[in-house]
Amino acid sequence: MDHGEATTTTGPVEASAPLGPPLVELTDVNKHFGDLHVLKDINLTVRKGEVLVVIGPSGSGKSTLCRAINRLETIDSGEIRIDGVPLPEEGKALAKLRSDVGMVFQAFNLFAHKTILENVTLGPIKVRREKTSAAKDRALALLDRVGVKNQAGKMPAQLSGGQQQRVAIARALAMKPKVMLFDEPTSALDPEMINEVLDVMVALAQEGMTMVVVTHEMGFARKAANRVVFMSDGEIVEEATPEEFFTAPRSGRAKDFLSKILTH
Ligand SMILES: Nc1ncnc2c1ncn2[C@@H]1O[C@H](COP(=O)(O)OP(=O)(O)OP(=O)(O)O)[C@@H](O)[C@H]1O
Ligand SMILES: [Mg+2]
């Protein structure tokens, strides 16, 4: 499961960059799908500059948590604040919130009929009302940063999965988000492409981006995460540093889960 030794770094970003004020705050958040209680009294704070890894078995609510933070899912009770502001219900305020919260999914979700460059400039031009030339310049700089500038004129289908996922990261960054959410960004990739995406994420973390990352990539967690939260059955069961969590999980559920993923 652990693919990641491509980047050599000294460890979590924590040592070099002190964490800032709370940026994402969930207070007593509950969510049901019919009879299924998928988020149970979730209390979680992510500070500015923090990299939080969310880990847990299938169906434990990790994607629902991410989607709730971006308000792609509503919640039944509790409160979610981004940079001190409660999530807006709808309208312009919600669109603004969405651009503050960048999201990268498991499937690359690029617009299939637009070029790579257009994929990255579309949001800034349409939503942020940036000038086309400025948006293009910044998009090219972002594509360069994720290592795919030379693909700018191609269509998504002409790129590998790893390249497409790096474009998806550039596209999210083009909206100048305050926080980036990643939901299993490497789990649909062929193994040889996983590191190229993780390396971009590690670099982002080192630059101080606030990140919530659902992943089972322990190499990434160890290198980049300040904290790991373990979810099971809609609850946060355990919170620890990556080192503590992977070497000495406290709960039976975490031990059981780790023994399963570590044997792969
Ligand atoms: N739109 C939906 N309608 C009904 N049930 C849903 C919906 N989305 C998710 N669920 C259920 O909610 C629970 C949590 O799902 P979620 O996708 O958040 O889990 P997950 O931890 O991301 O799992 P995985 O590791 O498989 O991605 C699951 O039991 C799932 O079947
Ligand atoms: Mg999921």
From TrEMBL:
Major localisation: membrane
Membrane topology field: Peripheral membrane protein
Keywords: Amino-acid transport, ATP-binding, Cell membrane, Membrane, Nucleotide-binding, Transport
Every ABC transporter domain range: 24-258
Tagged with keyword Nucleotide-binding: yes
InterPro entries assigned to the protein according to its UniProt record, in alphabetical order: AAA+_ATPase, ABC_ATPase_HisP-typ, ABC_transporter-like_ATP-bd, ABC_transporter-like_CS, MetN_ABC_transporter-like, P-loop_NTPase
CDD domains noted in UniProt: ABC_HisP_GlnQ
Compartmental location: Cell membrane
Top-level taxon of origin: Bacteria
Biased segments, Polar residues type: 1-11
Name of protein: Amino acid ABC transporter ATP-binding protein
The organism of origin for this protein: Isoptericola hypogeus
